TrEMBL record:
Residue span(s) of domain 4Fe-4S ferredoxin-type: 145-176
Entry-linked InterPro entries: 4Fe4S_Fe-S-bd (IPR017896)
Protein name: 4Fe-4S dicluster domain-containing protein
Length: 229
């Protein structure tokens, strides 16, 4: 694969608001996944988004789908990334594929990022407002260099407002209190989390220009904590 091919892949993804989120070559010590033909993959390109750029493309697609389509954003991502994979001779994989692939480790390797206190990788430009939607696996090597470690903005953040905004203290040094968060979002006091997104995530001072609009955050919160009963 040439650098021109990587540029062509990036151009194809951009038609749906997606971007290449770095890549790397597997080494002899890696547990390499299988590529398109069944041979071991030699390289990976991470695919994702910065801010909510894919949202209008996703909405146009969703308008044409049955109302009951399951996991619509995952389904859309698989279709879009799968079409690009077909065009460039790659195998497309998703973070939701089972058995799960080590996407966060791949992302850290591809872009030199570290996790924030919320577990989301902190990006020096996008802050917490980015995501990985899939990866393209190739059976030849990519012409890329190992990235330098990115500036980890959390190290310079003294007040850690991301750990203080949640009314049920869902995030702490002990980790993420999933059940407490879920009960709160579904409960009588679940606003503004339900309609405006996680208060801890929104409290982060970095990457605010890329913050997801409220409707996007509400969509993700509804996926995380669908109302029952």
């Amino acid at each position: 694969m040439t650098s021109g091919s990587v540029e062509a892949i990036a151009a194809a993804l951009s038609a749906d608001g997606l971007i290449v989120r770095g890549g790397f070559n597997f080494t002899a010590g890696d547990a390499s996944p299988i590529g398109l033909s069944g041979a071991l993959a030699k390289s990976a390109l991470l695919v994702g988004q910065a801010g909510a750029a894919p949202w209008p493309h996703f909405l146009r697609w969703r308008e044409k789908q049955p109302q009951a389509v399951a996991n619509p954003l995952d389904t859309w991502s698989r279709q879009v990334i799968g079409a690009v994979a077909d065009a460039f001779g790659a195998r497309a994989v998703s973070p939701s594929d089972k058995p799960y692939l080590p996407f966060q480790q791949w992302a850290m390797r591809a872009e030199g990022l570290k996790p924030s206190p919320l577990g989301i990788l902190m990006h020096p430009r996008y802050g917490l407002w980015h995501a990985y939607r899939g990866a393209l696996l190739f059976e030849d090597e990519l012409p890329i260099e190992v990235p330098q470690a990115a500036i980890h903005l959390c190290d310079a953040c003294v007040g850690k407002p991301c750990m203080k905004a949640c009314p049920v203290d869902a995030y702490s040094a002990e980790g993420f209190a999933y059940q407490s968060c879920l009960a709160h979002v579904r409960g009588a006091t679940g606003e503004p989390c339900r309609s405006g997104g996680c208060l801890d995530r929104n409290a982060c001072p970095y990457g605010t220009a890329y913050r997801y609009p409220a409707e996007v955050q509400a969509f993700h919160m509804a996926s995380f904590a669908p109302m029952v009963g």
